[in-house]
Amino acid sequence: MAGGKGTVLVTGGTGYIGSFTTLVLLEDGYDVIVVDNLANSSVVAIDRIERICKKRPLFYEVDITDEQALDEVFAKHPEINSVIHFAALKAVGESGEIPLEYYRVNVGGSISLLRCMERHNVTNVVFSSSATVYGDATRFPNMIPIPEHCPLGPTNTYGQTKRMIEQVITDQIEAQRRKLKAAGKPYEQWNAALLRYFNPCGAHPSGIMGEDPQGVPYNLLPLLGKVATGEREKLQVYGDDYPSRDGTAIRDYIHVLDLADGHLAALNYLREHKPGVRAWNLGSGRGSTVFEMIKAFSKVVGRDLPYEVVGRRHGDVLDLTANPALANEELQWKTRRTLEDACADLWRWVKNNPKGYRQEPPAELLAALDAQNGN
Fold this sequence. Notes:
Elements (H helix, E strand, L loop, with lengths): L6 E5 L4 H12 L3 E6 L7 H10 L4 E4 L5 H10 L3 E6 L6 H6 L1 H21 L4 E5 L28 H26 L8 E7 L1 E3 L18 H9 L6 E4 L11 E2 L1 E3 H18 L3 E6 L5 E2 H12 L5 E4 L8 E2 L4 H6 L8 H14 L10 H10 L3
Parallel strand pairs: 1-2, 1-4, 2-3, 4-5, 5-6, 6-11, 7-10, 8-13, 9-14
Antiparallel strand pairs: 9-12
Helix pairs in contact: 1-2, 1-8, 3-5, 5-6, 7-9, 7-11, 9-11
């Protein structure tokens, strides 16, 4: 592999956000090596990436908690110069039920990864963090929309693992820089981006690539997609007694392609500016309630989707809306796609691929993609 921009290792690269970031990296001229244990994803995502951009990432079925297997990938590919780290368990509700597994996989796996990076002198890492590290930002005055300097205070185990990994990465990067500087050696090459993002949604506009959660999805829009296709009877809305405009929780939804572009922008920033450790919010800056999202998606589908209000979930907070000004300014990045785009793209994906990656996409979608690519 010998791409113009170098080689990036993407952990969790067959997952939802990981696969879209792999696509964007390849389109931008990077070579990509994906490691994933396929616990909540499909290797078919690799085929879809290739179908869209005519480039294929290398793929290894590796669990990041298996440090020896991960180390073998680094040893085999000395050309790796950066890592984008997605691999993690990611369901807020589930994290409260099996906390030890979340700490083992998310924190333990990240430590394995950082140890491999140090051994193989791979010095840039972009970390897929989360807005859940902020917890309930309404407990502070003037912190909605949420800026990066908002004090951290996760309210659930998933958020705690993300905050912990941020700290581990920060300590490791700063230790490497300090050690090298004291020895009179170059140290600026050690850098990390902590990307705190809000609620990813949407799919590829071609309709052949999207989110394909194994089992029951935990996020609002994939659940709505299953209601729209008839796979689920109705959506459960967790609480309508929040102090919001309609009683439901407020979230900042961001198209997955915009989010992938944010990872690319962060990686390029690390390589160019060598800032040490930086945290950026990736969000639209617009908050939407659960009811507003149901209405927006129902409009695209063409009918009202049934829902039922149940009690609040443990660990949920009122408002997670980003203040993305820092990323807008420093990364020259901002969301370009609308909520309507995200809903339309998601519906195109779930309507045409009700079995996700366990089926071939419709021939007419593939023909349209090939025509667009000039084939």
